[in-house]
Amino acid sequence: MNLELPYDAFLRTLKENTDTGHVFLLGAGASISSGIQSAADCIWEWKKNIFITKNPSLSSQYSEYKSETVQRSIQRWLDNEGIYPKEGDADEYVFYALKAYPIDDTRRKYFENICRNREPHLGYRLLCLLAKYGMVKSVFTTNFDGLVEKAAYQTGITPIAVSLESTDRIHRTVSSSELLTVALHGDFKYGPLKNTGAELDTQHDTFIAALEQHLYDKHLIVMGYSGRDKSLMDALKKAYSKPGAGMLFWCGFGYNVNDEIQDLVLHLEQHGRRGFYIPTEGFDTTLIHTCKTCLDHNQNFVQEVNGVLQSAAVDEVEKTAFTMEAKQPHVLLKSNLFPVALPTEVFQFDAPFLEGERVWATIREITRGKNIVAVPLKKMIYAFGIQSQIREAFTGRLNGEIKRTPVTYKEIKEGTVFRNLYLKAIIDSLCQLRNLRSDGFEKIYLPDSGNTFNKAGISYHLYDAIELSLFFDNKINSDKPFAYISIKPTFYIESKSEIPKSLKFEVGKSYHDGLYKEKPNVRLGEQIDRWRSILFPTGKHVSFEFPLNSGTAFKFSVSANTMHVSLSKASGGYPLQLPQAFDKRTILHNGIQYNEPHLEFIDKYSGTVTKDFHPMRGLVNNRPYDFLSNGNVFDAEVNLGIICPDNKKDILYSFLSRLNREQSSGASNPEYLIDYPGFLNAYGIPLNIPDINSDLWNDSNITLPVTDLMKSAKDFADKIKKAIDKLEAVNKKLVLVIFIPTDLNIITDINNEHETFDLHDYIKAYAAQKQIATQFIQESTLIDPLVCQVNWWLSLSFYVKAQRTPWVLNGLESNTAFVGIGYSVKKLKDKTKVVLGCSHIYNSMGQGLKYRLSRVEDCYFDKQNNPYLSFQDAYKFGTLVRELFFNTMGEVPKRVVVHKRTHFRPDEIKGIVNSLKKSGVQQIDLIEINFEEGARFLSLYANQGNILPTNFPLSRGSCFLLDASTALLWTHGIVPSVRTENRSFYLGGKNVPIPLKIKKHYGASNIGMIATEILGLTKMNWNSFDLYSKLPTTIQTSNEIARIGWLLSRFEAKTYDYRNFM
Fold it and tell me: S-S: 27 plus which of 224, 257, 516, 942, CB 3.0-4.6 Å?
């Protein structure tokens, strides 16, 4: 039996029943957003109070009962006592209510206190608006808070409050300006409360009879209630044992349906009634969506709903708009983005599919070879084409009329399905207009550009192509999104044989290397101009209908000009001089090129803080940031322990010994790499490499069997683990080197149909539990020709893994701290999705401090399998962050910045913000950071009246706003050379840099601060001597640690130093 009714179907059902008076049953979950504890919170507070009164000396350490650490500790104590119910037991609530407050009046006082001065939040106010306009007739509640009555008065209707002391009022006639509210467990304002087992399981007969009467012909909507009260669930079963038209809609939080709810819905089915479970995002959100969906024809209702939402906006979301004061421009950028005007309506129709049909594949088959593009969305089909041809194509499936329906730019921007529809129409039209071909998805290719190749026995054709996508912005001072077509040069490969991924990768790498050669900025500019001449042969915009010349009025128009952006350098520079012939109207945005962040070191001579943007030069000219702590806080040396097969000892010793010698950089990477001065001269302390005959060397050699590689891998890992244990016994402060011979690479990463094994992750996890840092070295590294570079990278790793700090960031706010959220998702054999979340704390100087792993039990997944936290898990995350701050910093910072790769959902925002603010954090910024895959920008310069691409790409730190909460920021780009600032260095050097899309979901910080912090945090990856990484370390390291964290899931409550996972 399918219990679930999709959320959108539930809203549509309500919309068709606005003339029916509904009954609501509310539980404690409905009052959480109004600041009242849930039943679960009450249970934990009672547990805490019992624990503290039994252990008075621990009251201060255990005051925060929402802390997972506190909860686990209290629960262990309760379990050890042997007289308390197990955690999660159905009797917990009634047991602890009576145990904590055995006196009735005291128990009544407790609930009175938690409800005092609480005001009804959005959900309650909107519920009463629905009652005011006739859609809700009565509200039954297990709560004692009186929030329904308060909201009713505020809405202008009169509540008829019924409790155990006034049951006779339940039968009075209720007028249209009144709302019947029934407190099933009592109300402390009118009489005794019912909280204990005996009290809860004896519902008043009058209430049961009233429920039967109400539910005969009225639909019941349950929200915020778990179904834990046996008597109330029995009363509902009794009410639904009789025939009637009223249906049950049980709105739960998320998708988990407990046994009590399943039994009730099954009971309805068995007695000829209808019941459904609806997964929702909570009481407030569901009421907002209900009000937005229902009664939308009533303008008075719509105005009152908007008034409620607007009055709550200040309390609900603190998100100030990004602003940017770009002054005199110094730099001009050209994009691959062509403005496009899109039709604002599409065809919509219902065409049901057979059970088991693959909807997308079926639509593609139906429309194949026809001038129709169509997509499915929420059981409807949306399409472009000629109406008669669509009707003919979907003959036998159509259910109703084919109608035009409006579509906004915002819907296209935020909905991937609509984006696919519009993009397919554009691609098909351009192919017909310009005699091009498509791969059926996002690529257009030149049919006459194909060359035939044969590799690995596979014959294939390779074509020049472009990949198209839609891009949106809001320009400046505009609420309306603007659309663009993004074109990216690429290739299309075609073969009669199946092409393996490895071959596609190899072909793609070779193609792009040849396309961009040594000047990616110039080559991309040439490719954009080439395709511009193909798509716009007259140099003017192109307009077309879909289908072409069909009279459908589905009109598209694509400009032949690309978006340009001007940038002002924060450091100043020569003003940008544009030729008169340049069309300045194509400059659609103005931005800023932020300065390269500096790092802090200790001056060799004065011992004071000094700075440099280049980490190697900073160390050579100065000393590491923690140099003054040598000999007191830290040992004045770095000591290694070695795990290596005996037959490789000599070559490894020779390799490690070169770290103590100078090494010239030669001609390798001259704009960045400098001479390596030896470990002592670089870090100010010696590196001790043990003698190969000492007990600090341990043999790890094994013999490989031919048949069972998995067994060999585990044997190898066990041998390394034993060696780690031996070295730990000798000296706990060693940095352990683990050498992997080339012939053993075959057993370092095994993935078969039954099991996967990654030696690196496995050993890192094992060592991290012991707080031991490890460094893997492959045999191939010993013969790497980039000797100077390898010396720098490896020496830094040894220094940092000895728990040292080579440098910190300069210029960040001292009262700010940073948090990165990362996830690792796995599917178990029963297809259950499990998530491990990792939060990684950085202080105001960018030092990675600690991280914590936690299993996320209540989360949501999008279509890309990205997890999102529920309110409870988000709140728990905030509490976890607070714990980490206290453990690592001794205090809570005034400002916390949270970075994440996916967007923040409303429940995540509320949970994190509420938790951190309750902890005393005054300012919170929630920032989404992702790569903008579609947009590419070229740096330009003026030369004799022409605007041409520069030899180098645009500068790192370039930034401009897309809208009031979103910006593009380049963390990858050119920076000054280490030799002289008149020269440039570009890390990698093979491709045009991809920008990061920075989106603020909550907070008051402006883009200048947010962007500068992100740029700084890209320089704090101590696992590399690269000048920067493309992502800030907050999220880069969190995702990596979360992946390894699966092997630590039994140790979730522990806090780890991130150096042990580098």
Answer: 224
Q: Please tell me whether residue 439 adopts helix, strand or coil conformation.
A: coil
Does position 194 have pLDDT exceeding 60, yes or no? Answer: no
Q: Which tokens is 661 given?
A: 């010698």
Spatial CB neighbours of 689, under 8 Å, sequence gap ≥ 6: 640, 653, 656, 657, 659, 660
**Cα gap 285→307, rounded to integer Å:** 16
Alpha carbon distance 875, 884 (integer Å): 14
User: Where exactly does CATH 3.30.420.10 map onto the chain?
Assistant: 811-1061
Please, are residues 1011 and 1003 in contact by the beta-carbon 8 Å criterion?
no
Convert the pLDDT of each residue in 580-620 to its tens digit. Answer: 888 888 999 999 999 989 998 999 888 888 998 888 898 99
Whole-prediction pTM:
0.69
Model pLDDT, residue 929: 95
CATH topology of domain 811-1061: Nucleotidyltransferase; domain 5 (3.30.420)
CATH topology of domain 7-35+120-313: Rossmann fold (3.40.50)
Condensed to tens digits (0 to 9), the pLDDT of residues 295-345 reads 878 888 888 887 776 554 434 457 778 888 878 888 999 999 999 999 989
* Percent share of the chain, pLDDT over 90: 21
> At a CB cut-off of 8 Å and minimum separation 6, what does 94 contact?
195, 196, 197, 200
* 3-class SS string, 349-395: ECCCCCCCCCHHHHHHHHHCCCCCEEEEECCEEEEECCHHHHHHHCC
Q: In whole angstroms, what is the distance from residue 182 CA to residue 168 CA?
A: 11
What is residue 38's predicted lDDT score, i.e. its pLDDT?
73
Within its chain, how far is the Cα of 608 from the centroid?
40
Calpha distance 480→374 (Å, rounded): 26
Backbone angles phi, psi at 300, to 5 degrees: -65, -40
CATH 3.40.50.1220 domain locations along the chain: 7-35+120-313
Q: Where in the chain is the domain with CATH 3.40.50.2300?
A: 628-804
Instruction: Give the chain's mean pLDDT.
Output: 82
CA-to-CA dists, residue 483 to 338, 806, 960, 982, angstroms: 8, 46, 17, 38
| Class level of CATH domain 628-804 | alpha beta
